[in-house]
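Per reviewer request, we include the raw input and output of the structure prediction for the construct analysed in the revised manuscript.
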Amino acid sequence: MDINRMYFTEKEVSLFTGRALSTLRNERFHKKGIPYVKVGRSVRYSREEVKNFMEARRIDTEPI
């Protein structure tokens, strides 16, 4: 996967985030999850949106 591209396929996002394809598809169906772009039947996720989604779920811990 070329991390420098602007848009990723759902399979690439699944591999990158560890979320199942079925989860990504279910979230799209329910208008939830990572924002996406649809051109015809093709679904693409913006690199920035995937990054924002993951960072929004970051849990900070205290140093040991």
